[in-house]
């Protein structure tokens, strides 16, 4: 471990692109992953928790604990996106079963970790709805205040949404949680659709990953190809969640803007949409530009063992 090692917890709802992001972090020498906490999002909590364990088993990292978290949003009904991620959440791609059973109560586990570790020593890499982090803020504010940095995939600023005209899945799945987290004063970087839709894998990209013969790269290729089977149109697919790991590792590939962000907490189809509101918004660092070619190059290198 070096002074530049990113010690982090991954909070996730795997999920095809979550799996690729996790495999990136596990393959990169830059990250020291201390645990994987799960949240209901792309599919139910039992399946997201099992999938986290399966991904770690593929990577040979049964030493990293999986801790089951929130089974539902704070106050809303969640979404079902099995049509995109498959009934198993991983597009039907074969993964080994978890090497060890999961732990329970992600919020208590996170609080304990943050209080034991040096203040400002742990990043949270959030790939799903922010329910666990909102509960941490509400139930253990001192522990939440010890987070070094929260990097979260979510939202859309200038881009259209993917579950509503302006609403993105992760924020729309639990708008109240996002609102709590954004107002909590944590060092936060939001990675919205404005950049994640620019980081796109083609079939040639997945073929090159598969040809490496490396397990993480081949599994990622199969996962991305499953996206092609479950969605129609276009010659490429966006890699949303891997952008969190890419930003954590190489923030120079992204351009940040500090924006006053407010979350739509209404009941209309755009619940969870982000508004740039100078009166009601909270200043958040938002990634708005990305060098997509270099980002894809880095992702492929890490997945391939480089």
Describe the structure concisely for a colleague.
GO terms for molecular function: hydrolase activity. Helices cover 38% and strands 21% of the residues.
Looking at this protein, list some descriptive labels:
12 strands; 306 residues; 13 helices; I/U_nuclsd_hydro_CS; alpha/beta; Nucleoside hydrolase; hydrolase activity; Inosine-uridine Nucleoside N-ribohydrolase, Chain A; Ribo_hydro-like; 10-stranded mixed β-sheet
Q: What is the name of the CATH architecture?
A: Alpha-Beta Complex
Query: Mean pLDDT, nearest integer?
Result: 93
Q: Roughly how much helix do the residues carry, as a percent range?
A: 25-40%
| Biggest sheet: strand arrangement | 4-3-2-1-5-6-7-12-10-11
Query: How many separate helices?
Result: 13
Order of helices and strands: EHEHEHEHEHHEHHEHEHHEHEEEH
DSSP strand tally: 12
Global shape? globular
**Rg, Å, rounded:** 17 Å
**CATH superfamily placement:** Ribonucleoside hydrolase-like
First-residue to last-residue Cα separation? 17 Å
Count structural domains: 1
Structural class call reads: alpha/beta
Strand fraction band? 15-25%
Main sheet specs: 10 strands, mixed
Low-confidence stretches: 82-86
Protein name: Nucleoside hydrolase
Domain Inosine/uridine-preferring nucleoside hydrolase: 9-295
GO molecular function, one term: hydrolase activity
InterPro entries: I/U_nuclsd_hydro_CS, Inosine/uridine_hydrolase_dom, IUNH, Ribo_hydro-like
């Amino acid at each position: 471990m070096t002074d530049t090692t990113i010690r982090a917890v991954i909070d996730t709802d795997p999920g095809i692109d979550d799996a690729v992001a996790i495999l990136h972090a596990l393959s990169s020498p830059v990250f020291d992953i201390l645990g994987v906490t799960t949240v209901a999002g792309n599919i139910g909590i039992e399946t997201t928790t099992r999938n986290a364990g399966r991904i770690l088993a593929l990577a040979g990292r049964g030493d990293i604990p999986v801790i089951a978290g929130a089974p539902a949003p704070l106050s809303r009904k969640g979404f079902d996106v099995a049509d995109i991620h498959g009934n198993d959440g991983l597009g039907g791609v074969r993964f080994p079963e978890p090497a060890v059973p999961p732990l329970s109560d992600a919020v208590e586990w996170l609080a304990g970790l943050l209080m034991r570790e040096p203040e400002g020593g742990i990043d949270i890499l959030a790939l799903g709805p922010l329910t666990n982090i909102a509960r941490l803020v509400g139930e253990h504010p001192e522990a939440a205040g010890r987070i070094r940095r929260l990097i979260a995939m979510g939202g859309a600023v200038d881009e259209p949404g993917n579950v509503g005209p302006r609403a993105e899945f992760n924020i729309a799945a639990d708008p109240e949680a996002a609102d709590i987290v954004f107002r909590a004063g944590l060092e936060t970087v939001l990675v919205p659709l404005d950049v994640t839709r620019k980081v796109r894998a083609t079939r040639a990209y997945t073929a090159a990953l598969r040809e490496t013969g490396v397990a993480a790269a081949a599994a990622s290729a199969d996962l991305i190809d499953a996206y092609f089977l479950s969605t129609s149109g276009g010659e490429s697919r966006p890699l949303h969640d891997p952008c969190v790991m890419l930003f954590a590792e190489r923030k120079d590939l992204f351009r940040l803007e500090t924006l006053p962000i407010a979350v739509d907490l209404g009941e209309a189809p755009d619940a969870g949409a982000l508004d740039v509101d100078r009166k009601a918004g909270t200043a958040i660092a938002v990634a708005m530009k990305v060098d997509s070619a270099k980002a894809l190059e880095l992702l492929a290198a890490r997945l391939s063992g480089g």
